[in-house]
């Protein structure tokens, strides 16, 4: 099957290196084993970043906790989420 995804993030910039954020992820499954199902997550996160490495290269790191909000984690199979809650770590290099 296919997965159609939508992602929206709300960020706020504090000082030079602190970016608290809340991210919303929505996935719709078309066809396949999960055809017609959907799942949504809310992820509060904190991002530290744009640390200068060399020349124009900068490092960004972050962490968050992804929470499944749709369908409810208590829904019986086969409608259970692909996964429920999950820690997220991210590393990015900007240039």
Please name the defining characteristics of this protein.
mainly beta, 95 residues
Overview of this protein structure:
The protein is an all-beta fold. It is 0% helix and 66% strand. The chain contains no helices and 5 strands. It has a 5-stranded antiparallel beta sheet with strand order 1-2-3-4-5, with no helix packed on it. Strand 3 and strand 4 form a beta hairpin.
In short:
The protein has no helices and 5 strands. The chain has strands spanning 2-11, 18-30, 38-54, 57-70, 86-94.
Topology:
Elements: E1 2-11, E2 18-30, E3 38-54, E4 57-70, E5 86-94
Antiparallel strand pairs: 1-2, 2-3, 3-4, 4-5
Evaluate the radius of gyration: 17 Å
Largest sheet, in brief, is: 5 strands, antiparallel
By DSSP (H or I, 4+ residues per run), the number of helices equals 0
Strand content: over 45%
Helix content: under 10%
Q: Give the SSE order as H and E letters.
A: EEEEE
Strand order of the largest sheet: 1-2-3-4-5
> CA-to-CA gap between the ends?
36 Å
Helix/strand class: mainly beta
Mean pLDDT: 86
- Number of β-strand runs: 5
Low-confidence segments? none
What global shape is seen?
Answer: elongated
